[in-house]
Amino acid sequence: MNVDALPLLPECVDDPVVAWREGCPVSRHTFLTEVHALAARLPEAHYAINLCRDRYRFAVALFAAIVRGVHSVLPNVSAPDYLAVVCADLSDPVILLDYELDLERLPGARMVRVDAPVTGAIATERVSWTTVAFDRPVASVYTSGSTGRPQSHIKSFGRLCQGAVAEAARIREQTGVDCNVLGTVPIQHMYGLESTVLMPLLGGGRLTSRQPFFPADIAAALYELPEPRLLVSTPYHLRKLVESGLTLPPVAGVLSATAPLERDLAVRIEQVLDAPLLEIYGSTETGQMASRRSALQDTWRLFPGVVLRQYAGATVASGGHLEEERMLGDHVEFVAPEEFRLLGRHSDMINIAGKRNSLQFLNHVLMQIPGVEDGVFCLPQMGTADGVSRLAAFVVAPGLDAITLQAALLTQIDPVFLPRPLVFVEALPRDRNGKLTAASLAGLLAQHAACGA
Asked: Do 106 and 17 sit in the same domain of this protein?
């Protein structure tokens, strides 16, 4: 095989199951046949905006665009106004989707339905031997918006393949097998793209079309899959799942990312699901770079070939499957050549009245208080009359009052970090990854103008 080109899917001598759609197995040949059939229906275009909600249809659309030579754009928001902004930056895009969408706000955009039935015959040779240049850019993925406006990052086919294979190998160390992968995470985000689509298709395993959100739906989707099962999720979803008390089928392993996973929660997840939990470290810019068994260790082990270097207090990642050198947003302590410890995010550190702390630590303290179901600290942009910044906190705690909660916080944090105000809400506006975007926090602050008092 030419080292400059890779097969669309890994070569194999038989026709294995590569996906589960609505409980039914889908073979490699069937998947590739659907990919080529859709590719034949795509019009000439430079860009395809993949909005498919069904994970299987998303994968068909993604690989069809690769076959057709079209660059996939994966926006993490499907609101019409946001899509209009995305389309404005692209030349004559095609929109691929599997549901009805009002295109009035997207003049000139062409729509192709991915859920249309497959028609026509596709030559077996064409299905089996399609190759893609290693360095060819195939997709643009957007940051989540948790630290500001979402930014687009281009990914090449070869690097995505390398990352998928490295992740699969790391998971296989824990599970011992290739698994049927169920994800609660969105497919247009980097974590969902890598772990629930590319990793099973390019690294071994089988993807599933389901994308459950609530604990009961997660349990039902797991029961629908045969063993061995891998659950790909987030700390937010996993906390809700273990707190639900639902009876769950056996899983071979659990994968978590998108937010720091506390040791106590990791231990509880492993106990409830009776399976090893692997936490992933990475970002949209870098992809997945390292992992750890969070219930047993606090250090991270880099993926093969990835290297970290420090310059003037900043940490830069390069090598392996990374597209280019990237500066990390975290404080890092080296433990060994391939191991490191995270000390917190650069943007997470706050200074109030000359005293320093991290929002991550404050959120940890808040979430450990009995009766708190969800909560977050934030630092409003506006100042106060005395020139001293004040933290705000939004909390979901139906059985608690402000005095009780403030007293509990005072046992673990300095009084200058007490939130003023402390706002009780019914729910926090987390996205499907369990994250709170900068825009959603700004909306909360604007809604409760007292935060600036």
From this structure: yes
